[in-house]
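Chapter review: from sequence to fold.
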Amino acid sequence: MANILVQWLITATMAIYHPFFVSVLDFNHNAKDATVEISIRVFTDDLEKTLQKSSSAKIDIIQPADKTVIDKQIIAYIGKTLHLKINGQTVNAKYIGYEIIKESTWAYFEIEGVKECKKIDIDCNFLYDFEKSQTNIFHVKTKGQEKSYKLENPQRTTSFQF
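The token string follows.
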């Protein structure tokens, strides 16, 4: 119960003050389905402002005039700022969609055909073009193990071995 209260207080404080710029990227290897499931959590206003830079139309992720336009922009931006290799092979993630949860946008991707996940190489500059103090936190899960790492702008690369 105390843990839930602390998480709620942190979320409320972040929503009010938003004094730092952080995104969380979760990678979960699902051996049964031979997939790597990816979720990216980012403050909605940060993502909107970033996408707005490459659009002449007003960007509204929460109530979009045309959701397919937002989907295409998210796909293009993530494709430009997140590059992955699994077991030494470059992979492309399939976009599943996004949803809004409180002050955050969660974008979901999936990589198919990954029976075993021994190594993930990440090259990421997600939101570095938006905020110089951007931090991206990675959580990678496979084989019952979880490893985490924090990339701070301008650092862009990390690897996870299992």
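Two observations follow directly from the output. The mean pLDDT is 91. The first strand starts at residue 22 and ends at 30.
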